[in-house]
From TrEMBL:
Protein name: Putative 1-aminocyclopropane-1-carboxylate deaminase
Domain Tryptophan synthase beta chain-like PALP residue range list: 21-305
Family as reported in the entry's similarity comment: Belongs to the ACC deaminase/D-cysteine desulfhydrase family.
Active site per UniProt: 59 (nucleophile)
UniProt modified residues of type N6-(pyridoxal phosphate)lysine: 32
Source species: Auxenochlorella protothecoides
Amino acid sequence: MNDDEPTSQITECGSFDVLRDDLAHPYVNGNKLRKLDAVWPALLAGPARHVVTCGGAQSAHLVAVAALAAGTRGALASHLLVRGEAPAAPTGHALYMRLLGGNVRYVPRREYAARGAMLAAYAAALCAPPDGPRPDQIAVLPEGGAMPGALLGSARLVRWLAGELGAAPRDLVLDCGTGATAAGLALGVALLGLPWRVVGVEVGGPPGEAARTATGLLNEAVAEYDLNPGVPDAAQAALRWVPRGHPRRFGRTLPGDGAAVRAVAAATGVVLDPIWTLAAWEAAAARAAAATVGPAPRQLMLHTGGGLALCGAAQRWPEQY
Ligand SMILES: *Cc1c(COP(=O)(O)O)cnc(C)c1O
């Protein structure tokens, strides 16, 4: 977000460690903060007066952009294009993106499917009135903040972690949607030559999708920032993609999720949500339990935060919560 070195807290939770990035900011959850770490200052330094982006009704990215835009006290206005219909009673991220002052527009799914065209048409309409902004005063961010510049913040987090943890082998375990956060962590591991692996739990999309997006972003980042051409291969070598332990369609919650979250909170004080972070917790716990023979890398779960995303699902499956 600024020139300060990003810091967080590392807590031991029994057989593995947790990076408490969920505590980073009340409305900008851990991994969205990391993804915007380099992007946002660049945006503020440019001519932009409006930022346009898109996502689902419970998108943490949309709330993050609304919160950071609110922090500019009028210098930047946020425009949030949300997939689907407005909920009858907004809750969780759907509520907070409005409370934080975002200009929220719900877009029918068919129109939303062509994201690029949708974002471009919205930006053009903003500029259309005679007193409207110039095109260069509109910044457009992709869904989920998945852009090459997003990798830099996660890479900077790895540098901070290496200072805290030293260079012993580690597995960084995190829940993934687009894979942009994992790609940035792998970039940091590659740039620093650390003996670390990045274990991405595929939560947000079909198998293989996060890996494809991560690969694309790594290649784009290497071109854009003129990095050593060996970096993408080293980053790929650090990446591992694993399915989540209890698979389900993204956004659903299963019987037992509420009990699992309550048990972790009771034992450790850490609050998870079954949409995202429970998947990473379970993966880190399973990997720590499996690694009982010989020297194995210690697991560090990145708690990416974003628990408000559960509010919509908790309304639909109240019996579990
Ligand atoms: C957005 C989000 C993710 C997905 O991050 P990617 O960089 O798209 O993989 C994971 N967990 C939480 C809590 C999120 O809000």
